[in-house]
Every structure is written in structure tokens, then in C-alpha cells.
């Protein structure tokens, strides 16, 4: 009888630890993947114009199986938030990396190409619809704030950023938001926009745990001041969705 009780107790202990380990594995699945971390690092270094470190990050991105076309799309997307000069220098650096890898006999995966957009309806309305999907909220009919002050910027945002760029495939909405929050985190004094896009990130499937890991991932590449600002903004956004 005693022997049976001991065996039962041992069985329960084993089951407990197995369950605990399983829970740890499930928790781990909510973290950022190696590809997602590479997206963050490549993007932040592009925004900062740190081409020496970017070269290393691009190699690492290819090593964790980001495709050539995915990285191209990441670098193209950055221009909407940090300008053509940074984006183009990033693309030129990527060209150098590919040539060097090719010379070493490394054949990287090209990946799928972007699907041609055949929708000929109003780009403004399409962009508005995509923005509604991203934010989870209907877009107001009446312009306000900076959009009312300078309506042209509202048109450019809807037609170009959210139609021409976000409508493209290759990258998912979640991946594009990782690119976006990484660029905004790397530049100065853009906390309101960062807050908006962190909220959008949660709407498109990025988890609170991943946003916390985002801070630790980007920290070495954006400097102390920006890291402090990003950490504060992420905390504010998460506090708004989590019970205190």
C-alpha cells in the first residue's frame, strides 16, 4: 500500500513538472521569432543610418531565413517613416551584402514577389478602409487636427501610405507594424505616432508580451534616450489594455 502511494505521488510530481514545462513552452511561443527580431534590428539600424551594423544585421536576417524580397520590402517600407535617403542607403547596403554572400557561394532565397494590385477603385477610399482595419475603428468623415490644417497630408497618408504601401503583400500587417514602430522608436520626438502604432500593433496580432520583448530587442540600437521614451510609451499603451 505504501509503495502504491509513493508511486502515485511520484507520478503526480512528474505530471506537474511536465505540465509546468508545457506551460513554459506555450509562454515562449508568444515571444518574438528570430525573423521578427531581425525585422526590428534591420529597421532600427536603417532609420539610424548605422550602415556598418546594418550590414551585420542584414547577414543575420538572411541567416534566419528572411527572404531577399522580404528584406527589400522592409527597407522600402522604412522610407515612409524616415525618408528616401535612409531607405535607399539601406537598399544599397543590402545590395553589397548580397554580392558578398554570392561571392562566398551563399545562395539566399529570393522569395515571392509582390502581387500586382489590380484594384482601380479610389485609392483614398481603399487607404481609408485599410486604416479602419488596422485601427479597428471607423475613420471619421470630417477631418480634424493636422489633417484639417493640411488636407494634402491626409490625402498622401490615405492614398500612398495606407493604399500603395500597406496594401502590398509579402509582409503581413503585423510585420509592417513592426517595421513602423521600429523606425519611429529610432527617431526623436515622435511619441504620439509611436503610441498610435503600438496600439495598431496590438490590433493586428502582436501580443503585449511581444511588445515588451520589442523594447529589449531594439534597446541596443537606438540609444539610451530613445529607449527610455519607447519603454515609457509601451508601458502606457499596455496599461490601457491590461487591468492594473
Summarize this structure briefly:
InterPro entries: 4CMD/NDH-1_regulator, AhpD-like, CMD-like. This protein is mostly helical and 244 residues long.
Oligomer type:
single chain
Uncertain regions spanning at least 5 consecutive residues: 1-29
Average pLDDT over all residues: 90
The biggest beta sheet, please? Answer: none
Organism: Flavobacterium palustre
Pfam families: CMD
Domain Carboxymuconolactone decarboxylase-like: 24-90, 151-217
Protein name: Carboxymuconolactone decarboxylase-like domain-containing protein
Structure in words:
With 244 residues, this protein is mainly α. It contains eleven helices and no strands. Helix 2 (34-48) crosses helix 4 and helix 2 (34-48) packs parallel to helix 9. It is globular, with a radius of gyration of 22 Å. It starts with a helix and ends with a helix. 30% of the residues are buried. The model is unreliable at 1-29 (pLDDT under 50).
Helix and strand arrangement:
Elements: H1 2-29, H2 34-48, H3 51-63, H4 68-82, H5 84-103, H6 123-135, H7 145-149, H8 151-165, H9 173-186, H10 191-203, H11 208-241
Helix pairs in contact: 2-3, 2-4, 2-9, 2-11, 3-5, 4-5, 4-9, 6-8, 9-10, 10-11
Amino acid at each position: 500500500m505504501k509503495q502504491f502511494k509513493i508511486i502515485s505521488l511520484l507520478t503526480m510530481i512528474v505530471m506537474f513538472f511536465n505540465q509546468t514545462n508545457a506551460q513554459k513552452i506555450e509562454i515562449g511561443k508568444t515571444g518574438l521569432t528570430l525573423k521578427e527580431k531581425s525585422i526590428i534590428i534591420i529597421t532600427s539600424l536603417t532609420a539610424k543610418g548605422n550602415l556598418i551594423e546594418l550590414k551585420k544585421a542584414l547577414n543575420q536576417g538572411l541567416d534566419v531565413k528572411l527572404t531577399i524580397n522580404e528584406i527589400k520590402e522592409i527597407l522600402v517600407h522604412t522610407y515612409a517613416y524616415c525618408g528616401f535617403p535612409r531607405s535607399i542607403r539601406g537598399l544599397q547596403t543590402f545590395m553589397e551584402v548580397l554580392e558578398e554572400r554570392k561571392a562566398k557561394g551563399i545562395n539566399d532565397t529570393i522569395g515571392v514577389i509582390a502581387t500586382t494590385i489590380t484594384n482601380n477603385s479610389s485609392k483614398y477610399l481603399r487607404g481609408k478602409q485599410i486604416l479602419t482595419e488596422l485601427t479597428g475603428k471607423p475613420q471619421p468623415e470630417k477631418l480634424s487636427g493636422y489633417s484639417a490644417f493640411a488636407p494634402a497630408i491626409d490625402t498622401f497618408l490615405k492614398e500612398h501610405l495606407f493604399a500603395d504601401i500597406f496594401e502590398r503583400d509579402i509582409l503581413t500587417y503585423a510585420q509592417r507594424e513592426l517595421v513602423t514602430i521600429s523606425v519611429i522608436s529610432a527617431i526623436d520626438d515622435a511619441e504620439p505616432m509611436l503610441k498610435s502604432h503600438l496600439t495598431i500593433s496590438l490590433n493586428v496580432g502582436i501580443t503585449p508580451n511581444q511588445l515588451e520583448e520589442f523594447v529589449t530587442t531594439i534597446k541596443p540600437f537606438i540609444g539610451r534616450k530613445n529607449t527610455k521614451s519607447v519603454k515609457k510609451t509601451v508601458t502606457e499603451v499596455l496599461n490601457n489594455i491590461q487591468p492594473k
